[in-house]
Design brief:
Radius of gyration: 20 Å
Helix content: 40-55%
Strand order of the largest sheet: 1-2-5
Order of helices and strands: HHHEEHHEEHHEH
Number of helices: 8
Shape: globular
Structural class: alpha+beta
Number of strands: 5
Strand content: 5-15%
Length: 223
């Protein structure tokens, strides 16, 4: 699904991205990531910019039937209000900037900087379980996840398991782990959200998938 009109919130995402890039450049973290990963600074900057730029592109995946119960109102005298149900469908989509690109980046980083398959799977599984246990469905909003909880777990797990390519591994595990734990494993909870449209990674650069990947990189680079 492609929204032709660029809503105001996406402009805010682009402005937020500019601010984040400025801070990362000032702290020289982008330079450090480039040195550790072997990638150029321009490649990293372009990869980050592409996330908010493509955050308004949603790819439809499937529709699922949902039943939303209208909340019971308080009883008035002897009259008990009838509880009614709303039956409809929820369209599940995947966001390009918030999910597709991070997944592509993860696969590319693993191909460029591979680590033991056992190690990467162990870190991803740990992040997935943490994301699933810490996430909660929030009606009218989506799947909520505490901002720094999962990145801390991912960074510490990566730091103690892998010796080289820790930064790229932290990004891969943080991105895929949250996508699996807070999105894929929570698909059944979509029926509780009361929404006709749900997009995986729909918050763009502010989505948990994107933020966990980048914050995990920052934390593991500080360890």
């Amino acid at each position: 699904m492609f929204n032709r009109k660029l809503p105001g919130r996406y402009i805010h995402l682009i402005l937020f991205t500019t601010f984040v890039l400025s801070v990362l450049w000032y702290l020289e973290w982008i330079t450090q990531w480039a040195e550790h990963s072997g990638l150029s600074t321009y490649t990293i900057i372009i990869a980050i910019i592409l996330i908010p730029v493509t955050a308004f592109i949603h790819i439809p995946l499937r529709r699922i039937p949902v039943v939303h119960a209208i909340p019971q109102v308080s009883m008035v005298g002897w009259i008990v209000p009838k509880r009614t149900l709303y039956r409809g469908q929820t369209l599940i989509a995947i966001n390009v900037g918030g999910a597709v690109l991070p997944l592509i980046y993860s696969v590319t980083l693993y191909l460029l900087f591979p680590v033991s398959i056992t190690s990467i799977l162990l870190i991803i599984i740990t992040t997935t379980l943490a994301s699933f246990l810490l996430s909660r469905p929030i009606p009218g909003f989506g799947i909520g996840l505490p901002l720094f909880s999962t990145p801390i777990i991912t960074a510490l797990t990566t730091h103690y398991i892998v010796d080289e390519h820790a930064i790229s591994t932290a990004y891969i595990a943080g991105t895929i782990g949250v996508m699996l734990g807070a999105d894929v494993l929570r698909l059944n909870d979509i029926k509780q959200l009361g929404s006709s449209f749900v997009s995986i990674g729909g918050a763009g650069i502010l989505d948990s998938i994107v933020l966990t990947g980048f914050i995990s990189m920052i934390l593991v680079s500080l360890l």
